[in-house]
């Protein structure tokens, strides 16, 4: 993957087309000739909150300001979201009037912004099919998902479109959307929902779009960058706007420009296309990235529409306790090895449930930053684990526990993406060897200071997501739940109790619970940001 931090990029297209390259602060090109239609595309991806981040970057109110500016410069503006917004986020985990929002606030924000299209991302399925349908119905813009199918009907998921066609100044512009196939197991689509191969769905969509008269076709994708490259090779499209990687990407594959941004609207992508008014052929294409900072003013109309959420934001600022040490909540770090936060979470869950051991998948930890020592607010609590999981207890054999640890490290690699299934643990220690094949990597396991007994039985605390067999933890899927000290105890309850009482207390450093051998000097590489 080629990523850069420059603010603009011009794409080299076939036939030696003349392109424009500009800095973020430079003026837009002059008015196009009479035989040319200018299309401006504003794009974002992986936006989990409508407010600015903790670093005061992003904020959809600021994006709304930039959109209004673009509309003053050109009548043909499309604003696109390349997936992932319903989950995970602090607000989506919160409750209003006793009901969890589950992404409702984000749809209200996109409606206020005036989004034109979104494709579904893998996290759109985190709350299940019924919630997704409700969010689709709430939206005042089309959602795309050509490879999201109903098994029963054989049609695209109810409420989605495979593709859409829009007249832009006389040029017929087609757009389709696809999501990565891993969504089938990494999220929670229903039994009737199948995520099909994206290339096949894209080919079908492009064929139908061309038959409907589309002159310019773009893919709005929520795929890994390698999959975007594969898509560009398997079907001819004019442009791919993507998401999912949380990295800025700018490259051309098989003649198709691919653009992707980081997350949470900290930047806004702007593609300026000059299209032949008769044929829709690209005469000129330029891309620039606009940083979203406090220098961009808020849009008053957007803020007015989001006023109903002011009480929620005040609640999230409430104090729930404190941490005596900084907590490493970086997503990638919690997927490559032990962290002090991962051990603290597992300890809190094990003690709350009266269990022998605890196992937490690293992908459940989402704040993606180091939280400083001191006051902990409700927002920070939710940010640590934004998914609405239950805390459960299972009776497992030592052999099951060993198989679970093998699964947890099965996807670990020197240069691959750190896997969400990586286990953070309590009540046990284990060693794994990266030089061995998956399934035979765990070389040593101790439970409470004694070697793991494959025939022994242990009480294990974990999240309902893991207990249901997700992230490859199929060994737990059909196990009955054991009685718990409190049947309705949530992960947030356990953590809130720990932060308010100081029991258990987080440690400043990892405790050596997870040992890695067979890795290069310096251990495994962890990207700076990942969700």
Q: What is the CATH C level class of the largest domain, in words?
A: Alpha Beta
Note the total helix count.
14
Name given to the CATH architecture of the largest domain:
4-Layer Sandwich
Percentage of residues in DSSP E strands: 25-35%
Identify the CATH homologous superfamily of the largest domain.
Metallo-dependent phosphatases
Q: Name the average pLDDT.
A: 91
Tertiary shape = globular
**Low-pLDDT segments:** 1-28
Q: How many structural domains can be distinguished in the coordinates?
A: 2
Strand order of the largest sheet: 1-17-16-2-3-6-7
- Rg, nearest Å: 24 Å
SS content category: alpha/beta
Biggest sheet details: 7 strands, mixed
Number of extended strands: 29
What is the fold named in CATH at topology level of the largest domain? Purple Acid Phosphatase, chain A, domain 2
What percentage of residues falls in helices of 4 or more residues? Answer: 10-25%
User: What is the straight-line distance between the termini?
Assistant: 17 Å
List the main descriptive attributes of the protein structure presented here.
531 residues, Purple Acid Phosphatase, chain A, domain 2, 5'-nucleotidase,  domain 2, seven-stranded mixed β-sheet, six-stranded mixed β-sheet, 14 helices, disordered N terminus, hydrolase activity, Bifunctional metallophosphatase/5'-nucleotidase
């Amino acid at each position: 993957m080629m990523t850069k931090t420059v603010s603009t990029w011009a794409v080299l297209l076939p036939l030696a087309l003349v392109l424009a390259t500009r800095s973020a602060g430079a003026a837009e090109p002059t008015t196009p000739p009479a035989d040319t239609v200018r299309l401006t595309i504003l794009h974002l991806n992986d936006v989990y909150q409508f407010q600015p981040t903790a670093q005061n970057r992003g904020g959809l109110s600021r994006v709304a300001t930039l959109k209004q500016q673009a509309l003053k410069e050109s009548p043909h503006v499309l604003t696109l979201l390349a997936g992932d917004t319903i989950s995970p986020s602090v607000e989506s985990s919160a409750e209003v009037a006793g009901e969890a929002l589950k992404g409702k606030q984000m749809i209200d924000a996109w409606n206020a912004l005036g989004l034109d299209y979104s494709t579904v991302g893998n996290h759109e399925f985190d709350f299940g099919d019924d919630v997704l349908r409700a969010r689709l119905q709430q939206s005042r813009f089309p959602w795309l998902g050509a490879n999201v199918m109903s098994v029963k009907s054989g049609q695209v998921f109810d409420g989605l479109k495979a593709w859409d066609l829009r007249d832009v100044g006389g040029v017929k512009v087609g757009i389709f959307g696809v999501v990565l196939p891993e969504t089938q197991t990494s999220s929670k689509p229903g039994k009737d929902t199948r995520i099909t191969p994206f290339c096949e769905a894209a080919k079908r969509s492009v064929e139908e779009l061309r038959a409907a008269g589309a002159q310019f076709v773009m893919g709005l994708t929520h795929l890994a960058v390698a999959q975007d490259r594969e898509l560009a090779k398997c079907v001819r499209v004019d442009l791919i706007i993507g998401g999912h990687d949380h990295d800025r990407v700018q490259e051309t594959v098989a003649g198709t420009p691919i653009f992707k941004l980081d997350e949470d609207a900290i930047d806004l992508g702007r593609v300026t296309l000059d299209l032949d008014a008769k044929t829709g052929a690209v005469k000129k294409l330029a891309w620039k990235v606009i940083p979203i900072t406090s220098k961009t003013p808020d849009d008053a109309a957007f803020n007015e529409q989001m006023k109903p959420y002011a009480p929620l934001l005040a609640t999230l600022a409430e104090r729930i306790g404190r941490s005596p040490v900084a907590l490493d909540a970086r997503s990638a770090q919690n997927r490559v090895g032990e962290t002090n936060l991962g051990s603290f979470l597992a300890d809190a869950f094990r003690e709350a449930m009266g269990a022998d051991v605890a196992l937490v998948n690293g992908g459940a930890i989402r704040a993606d930053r180091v939280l400083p020592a001191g006051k902990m607010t409700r927002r920070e609590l939710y940010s640590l684990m934004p998914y609405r999981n239950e805390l459960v207890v299972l009776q497992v054999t030592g052999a099951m526990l060993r198989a679970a640890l093998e699964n947890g490290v099965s996807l670990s690699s020197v240069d691959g993406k750190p896997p969400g299934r990586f286990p953070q643990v309590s009540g046990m220690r284990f060693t794994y060897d990266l030089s061995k094949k998956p399934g035979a990597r765990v070389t040593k396991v101790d439970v409470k200071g004694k070697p793991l007994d494959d025939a022994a039985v242990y009480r294990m605390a974990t999240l309902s997501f893991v207990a249901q067999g997700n992230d490859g933890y199929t060994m737990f899927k059909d196990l009955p739940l054991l009685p718990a000290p409190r049947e309705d105890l949530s992960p947030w309850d356990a953590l809130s109790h720990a932060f308010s009482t100081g029991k258990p207390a987080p440690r400043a450093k990892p405790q050596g619970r997870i040992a890695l051998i067979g890795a290069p000097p310096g251990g495994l590489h962890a990207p700076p940001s990942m969700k």
